[in-house]
Design a protein that fits this description.
- The radius of gyration is 17 Å and the shape is elongated.
- It has six helices and nine strands, in the order αβααβββαβαβαβββ.
- It has two domains: 71 residues, RNA 2'-phosphotransferase, Tpt1/KptA family, N-terminal domain (Arc Repressor Mutant, subunit A, Orthogonal Bundle), CATH 1.10.10.970; 81 residues, ADP-ribosylation fold, CATH 3.20.170.30.
- The chain is 31% helix and 18% strand.
- The two termini are 29 Å apart.
- It is an alpha+beta fold.
- The longest helix is centred in the first third of the chain and has 12 residues.
- The strands form three sheets. A three-stranded antiparallel sheet has the order 1-3-2. The chain has a three-stranded antiparallel sheet with strand order 4-6-9. Strands 5-8-7 form a three-stranded antiparallel sheet, with no helix packed on it.
């Protein structure tokens, strides 16, 4: 991920105050305000470069509004934000990539969001394995999301196709 993309992630997901911003409802910020704030902090970025980062980001981390005047992180926030996503029925199975060193805790306490607002789930094992590699020796967990949903747990699909839920109890986890 490019340095500029990492900076955008940090601002839009975790620390908007770094460039003098507050997130609006839905996690949005005005593109002009973002670019001005970044420039004030010595990180000049053009509108064209911003659009290129959004389009080329392999994980589709960012979403531009239809008119291009607003931008937000698709998911992954550690700051309080309501993305305005509607609860939807998930597929029967989703996946979560993690490090093997986390398994004892996960199987005793369930999957928790950690520093994020919600637990992130992947639509396929390959994507989950890539996520798990960022944390150490990867392990892919199989989540019985259909059963969870029928038992009353809510699921949301982010702009970039990542599935979100508040918590995954251990009884829905497997390999």
């Amino acid at each position: 991920m490019s340095k500029q993309s990492k900076t955008l992630s940090r601002i839009l997901r975790h620390e908007p105050e770094l460039v003098g911003l507050s997130l609006m409802p839905g996690g949005w910020v005005r593109v002009d305000d973002l670019l001005r704030g970044m420039k004030r902090n010595g990180q000049s970025l053009s509108v064209e470069d911003l659009h290129k980062i959004v389009e080329e980001n392999d994980k589709k981390r960012f979403t531009l509004s239809e008119d291009g005047t607003l931008i937000r992180a698709a998911q992954g926030h550690s700051v309080e934000v309501d993305l305005g996503l509607e609860a939807v029925a998930p597929p029967e199975t989703l996946y979560h990539g993690t490090a093997r060193s986390n398994l004892d805790s996960i199987f005793s306490e369930g999957l928790k969001p950690g520093r994020r607002q919600q637990v992130h789930l992947s639509p396929d094992p390959e994507t989950a394995e890539k996520v798990g590699q960022r944390h150490g020796k990867p392990t892919v967990l199989r989540i019985e999301t259909g059963s969870m949903h029928r038992d009353g747990y809510a699921f949301y699909r982010a702009d970039n196709a990542v599935w979100l839920t508040d918590f995954v109890p251990a009884q829905y986890l497997g390999f």
